[in-house]
Amino acid sequence: MAAVRTVNEQAFGQPAEAGLVEMLRASCGEALSLVAEDAGVVVEGDAGRVAGMGLAPLAVHPDRQREGIGSRLVERGLEILRGRGCPFVVVVGHPGYYPRFGFERASARGLSSQWPGVDDAAFMVRVLDPPAMTGVSGVARYREEFDAFA
């Protein structure tokens, strides 16, 4: 969808995230992709293993930021994922933004990012199903589409 690409390019100031979103939408049947619209205009986005989800990227058109649109998208996405039985969601994001949605440092739960150099404060997790996460620790690995952008 061209409008989603435009929002991501404008929100991030570069095309990389827009390319990632297109790749994920094309290859992830189980993914969740939310788009906010206002009057028709896009304003928004194995054994021993526990599969969760990654929240990324989240974009809101620059002209519509600070209106709560991103917050509503995150809240709705978490609600849908909880309903689907997803045990956790990870994000590499601003440590001043995501804790309001229940995200905490992933390292506090024994989780680390697959990418070296990711700031500990920026790599966060939101546990949606505490019993499923009991005793779970290790490296959180994103889908291979993210590797080109890491």
Concise summary:
The protein is of the alpha/beta class.
Q: How would you characterize this protein structure?
A:
There is one protein chain. By secondary structure, the chain is of the alpha/beta class. The chain has a single domain (2-142), classed as Gcn5-related N-acetyltransferase (GNAT) (Aminopeptidase, 3-Layer(aba) Sandwich), CATH 3.40.630. Helix content is 28%, strand content 16%. It has helices at residues 2-12, 16-27, 69-83, 130-133, and strands at 37-38, 41-42, 53-54, 88-92, 104-105, 111-113, 123-127, 138-140. The strands form three sheets. The chain has a four-stranded mixed β-sheet, with helices on one face. A two-stranded antiparallel sheet has the order 1-2. Strands 6-8 form a two-stranded parallel sheet. The longest helix is centred in the middle third of the chain and has 15 residues, at 69-83. The radius of gyration is 15 Å and the shape is globular. Residues 42-47 have low confidence and may be disordered.
